[in-house]
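During the second half of the funding period, the structural biology subgroup turned its attention to how the target accommodates small molecules. The most pressing case was ribose-5-phosphate, which had performed well in the primary screen but for which no bound structure existed. We therefore specified the complex as follows and requested a full 3D prediction, including the ligand pose.
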Amino acid sequence: MADLDDIQDGKNYHLDTPHQSRAFGLRGSNALDWGMQNRLARIFNPRDNRTVMLAVDHGYFQGPTTGLERIDITVVPLVAYADALMITRGALRTSIPPEMTRPVVLRSTGGQSILKELSNELVAVDIEDAVRLNASALAVQVYIGGMHEHESIGNLVKIVDAGNRHGIPTMGVTGVGKELVRDAKYLGLATRICAEMGAHFVKTYYCEKGFARVAAACPVPLVIAGGKKLAELDALKMAHAAIQEGAAGVDMGRNIFQSDAPEAMIQAVRAVVHEDEKPETAYELYLSLKSVPVGR
Ligand code: R5P
């Protein structure tokens, strides 16, 4: 029976203090529902609204990529340094311990391989399975200008609608075919289309000329892919330039897991993204962390 004798009348209603209603600081996200904002706040650190996402989903179309042959061995030690992990459901279930508490950005399209036309994708995860996996966001490849542009935008629309029903945000990923130039005009077109079709944040590439305009015209946060492996200092310079020109972070793969010292590299990338560290200073950090013997 309920303990009716012990019900207490509240005493402190703070009548002189209006109810606290704070704006949600992440670009373009203030009108979203609580669950959506909460998931985005797990990916983008609310302190600076930036993120270091670790992308390890490459196997979904290119198989055992260098550095990802054994995700259970090479990726698991990196997860603690990432704000979020971008991964396929197969790699997540088989190779990442469920005790991992970092938010998952779930690769949600696929259906092709490097042997065929890359833009020929379909929705590759049911929204119920994404919920089951506790995904914090869904990732969709969009091939503007590609052979299957129309279908890939259709995939984005389907996934945004499914995610919206469950409060799960969607990241649009601008897939660029070999025949297309990654300049500001193209990236501006592709990123803006993703945002206009409902993506809650967008992943794209950095371009040396005009990236600030690409970022300015995208009404949701932009994160950059690292692209092919560069020398560590060059990758840090690229990340730094992107951040200073308006990116909200990185979703970096090969430039971290193919580095000579992946744990040192991801910490150096964090310094650039979250501490506005200059690339040269972050590179010094990389070198000093790299020199620490494993296990110390
Ligand atoms: C590519 O389609 C995948 O989504 C990768 O996650 C993406 O390219 C980011 O990885 P990287 O930094 O190696 O380019």
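Two results from this model are relevant to the next phase. The first strand starts at residue 51 and ends at 55. The mean pLDDT is 95.
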